[in-house]
Each structure stands twice: as structure tokens, then as C-alpha cells.
Amino acid sequence: MLTPNMRIGHGYDLHRLEPPPPQGSGRDLVIGGVRFESEIGPVGHSDADALMHAVTDAILGAVGEPDIGQLFPDDDPRHESQDSAVFLTEAIWRARRAGFELANLDATVILERPRLKDRKQEIRERLAEILGIEVEQVNVKGKSHEGVDAVGRREAIEAHAVVLLQRR
Asked: Is residue 1 part of a domain?
């Protein structure tokens, strides 16, 4: 069987947003490894970084590996408050073990507030650092939902990621 020289992977994640304890269960808002000031944050077992989770799943999917929930279950106490960079590092290691390298990453974060525009470069740099690639290989877009649905009402954050892997 012929193995393709390139693989595409898509990842998606969504986290509910709440105030921090004691009013809610929200964590600090971290997007792509960058901490944002916000009165609400994602609810999740790990640090709940929706962007890193989507990128992790995109890479794992491209090489046919188990998804993030299978590798790092949310009922495993070892992953409580875990930095999502650990998950992303594991995903890129698995891709390299399979003989692939990351050609590029294109990601979209959907969130009403805070806006990403002034911090996108910082997110790109952090993701490139973790992935071991050049910043130019990483693109991050920020979108809002214009007040529509849970994301638009500031009740959730959503992230999509697409990766292209090439054989090394």
C-alpha cells in the first residue's frame, strides 16, 4: 500500500465559559499558551486551552492516532490543571515518530471577548515554539459570533485547526 507524502488533519474544541470560583468553575483564560485577562474562563479538566486542544487533535488525526480525549482522559487525575503544551508536544512527537513533520497550521478561535487581534503574534510564536517550527508556518485568526448562540453570549469559546503534515 502506498503511503501518502502529505496528510491533512482537522481539530475542533469547545469549552464552556464561567467566572472563576467561588461563583463558577472557570479557569484562567489561556489561548494558544497565552494567558488573557478576563472575568470568565474555560471550564475543563486540564488548563482548558481550546486552541491547543484543537491543534493537538488535528495533528493526531492526520497520523491516525487516538484523539486527545483517548490519550489524556478528563477523568485521569494526572491531567488535572495540566498545561496543554504537554498534549501538543505528545501529538507532534507521535507525528514525527510516524515519519511526518508539520508543514503548516491554520487555526481559528471564535470568542466574543477578549479580542485576539493585539495578541495573535504572541500566540503564533508560542505555538511555533512548542511545535518546533517557524512562526511563518502558523496562522491564527480570531472571530466573534456577533452575539449569536452560546459563543456570542460569552458562554463558550470555540477553536478549529487544520494542519498539513509532510513526510520527512
From this structure: no
The reply to whether 39 falls in a domain is yes
Question: C-alpha distances in angstroms, 65 versus 62, 88, 94?
Answer: 8, 13, 8
Please give the model's pTM, rounded to 2 decimal places: 0.96
Cell of 152: 456570542
| Domain assignment of residue 133, yes or no | yes
Q: List the pLDDT tens digit at each of the 168 positions of the chain.
A: 667 899 999 999 999 999 999 999 999 999 999 999 999 999 999 999 999 999 999 999 999 999 999 999 888 888 888 999 999 999 999 999 999 999 999 999 999 999 999 999 999 999 999 999 999 999 999 999 999 999 999 999 999 999 999 999
Measured CA to CA, the distance from residue 17 to residue 133 in angstroms comes to 31
Per-residue exposure over 91-129, b if at least 16 CB sit within 10 Å of its own CB, e if not:
bbebbeebebebeebebbbbbbeeebeebbeebbebbbe
